[in-house]
Structure formats: structure tokens, C-alpha cells
Amino acid sequence: MPSSILVGDIGSTKSTWWLQEETAHEIQLGGYNPVVHSSTVGSNLFTELQRKTSSTRIDAIWYYGAGILDEQVAANVTALLRGVFPDCPIHVASDLVGAAYAACGHAPGTVAILGTGSHAAIWNGHAVTRQATSLGYILGDDGGGCDIGKSLIQAYFYHDMPDVIQAEMADRIPGGRNKLLQELHSSSVPNQYLATFARVAVQFKDHEWIQKLVSSRFKVFVEKHLVPLEADFEVHIIGSIGCIFASLMIDELKQHRLKAGHLIRNPAQRLFERHMEHGRN
Is this model's pTM higher than 0.70 or not? Predict the structure, then answer.
């Protein structure tokens, strides 16, 4: 049986894993965020992961995930993984650490995550030394997909958007306000539910109104999350929202005398390559 390391980038919505068998390849599975999901979601994900990798002996698992806020959460996720992979060394860190390592390797830099949620940090080449205050999807995640989705929903119900976008939103909210609120309150993953509406922004990404809305949310992200870090390195942009609207993010960085670095939509493959390059450590 061949052996390999398994490296995963785990978001709230989806997870991407890489391992080496005859060739390196990707595995796409569901997401897991221990802050908003039950442990059952994690256990089910890891069971499915084990089934997908059963033909390979895993020498080590490197898990970089959303919601890894402290050592206790990391320990809980490690325990869930160990229940499925009992004989495998397991390393659990935040998606912030993963993004920084993917973008910078062992060089210093600044990272801005803009996916379903958002975050920012300074990386010294080995560890995160400063990071923005993260308040989660209800109070924070400025500029991420969930935040943009909320902004679109608000503008729709306030009748404060162009007719063509209003019509698209109406198609996505056929039950009106009451139905939307019911679905939001009953959802087991409300951040993901809200983020689905960001697809409207992507659909109309060249529309002036959408560009103005997204730019306004990026402005909050830069001013509240990046500027206080006093970043003196290039800002590497990680995540789907940041990359889809890269030109808007780069313009906002320029407004604050910050320079954009790499654009990495999905860091999982780069993380895998980093670990393979550095002796699997």
C-alpha cells in the first residue's frame, strides 16, 4: 500500500484535500467549521475522507481549518480526526495559518482571507504574529461572501438596488421576507446560507452597482482589519471572493498605500506542495 501525507484546507462550505498516490491529486468534500457545525458534521466528513483515502497509508494529516480559534477547539478537532485515523500523526491549525503558509512559506508577509468569511494576519515566516479581531459571521467577516450576501439581502428588502439585480434576488427569495427569515433561523449553517446570495454579486460582477457595493465592504475590511496590523509587507489575497473581485481589492489596497501580492483562490494544493518541499514538515 502506498503512503502519503494528507493536507486539507477546510472551510465552512467545502474542504479540499491533497495527497500523493501514483500522482498528487485533489479530493473535494463538504466543509466543517466547529464554531457553527456540530461535531457530527466533522465526524461524517472525516469518515468520508477515510473512505476516499482507504487505498493509501497516511503518514501524517495536516488540517488547516475555519473556526480553529484556540487550542481547545484544535484539540477537539484532533480528537474527531483521531477517531477515524487512530494511528496517524495529526496536526491541526487555523485556516489563517494555512493561508499564510500557502502564500508565504517561510518568508514574512501579510495575508487577507476573503472567502465565505474574512480574516487578516501578519506572518513572520514561522507563525502568525499579529492578527485582526475576528467576530464571526454575525458581527464581523467584513468583505467575505457572507457579509456581501447580507448586504444584498438588505438592499433587496429596502428596495435599494437596480431592477435587474432586484429581479434576480426575487427569483432567489420566492417566499419573501418571512420565508427567508425562517430558512435563515432554521439553517444549521446560517453563514453558508447567507453566503449563497453572494453568487448574485458574482453573476453581476461587472455591474457598476455591484462593484460599488463590494468595494464598500472591502473598504471596511481594509480599514478595520488590515490597516490596524500596520502591515509593511505585500498583502497576499486568499479565497474565492478576494480573487473574483481582485481588481476591486487591489484598488482598495492602493487607496491605503498597500501593495497586493499573490492571488490564491484555493490554497490547498500550494499547502500540499509546501509540505512536500520541506520534508513533509
Answer: yes
Q: Which residues of the chain have pLDDT under 70?
A: 1-3, 21-22, 278-281
In degrees, rounded to 5, the angle at the alpha carbon of residue 147 between the alpha carbons of residues 115 and 199 is 65
Whether the Cβ atoms of residue 169 and residue 163 lie closer than 8 Å to each other = no
Instruction: Please check whether residue 193 is in contact with residue 183, taking contact to mean a CB–CB distance below 8 angstroms.
Output: yes
Contact between 64 and 8 under an 8 Å Cβ cutoff? The reply is yes
In the chain, alpha helices (H): 39-52, 71-84, 95-104, 136-139, 145-157, 163-172, 176-186, 190-195, 198-203, 208-221, 240-244, 246-255, 268-277
For the chain, how far is it from start to end, CA to CA, in angstroms?
22
Residues 202-222: b if buried by 16+ CB within 10 A, e if exposed: eebeebeebbebbbebbbebb
Helix (H, G, I), strand (E, B) or coil at 188: coil
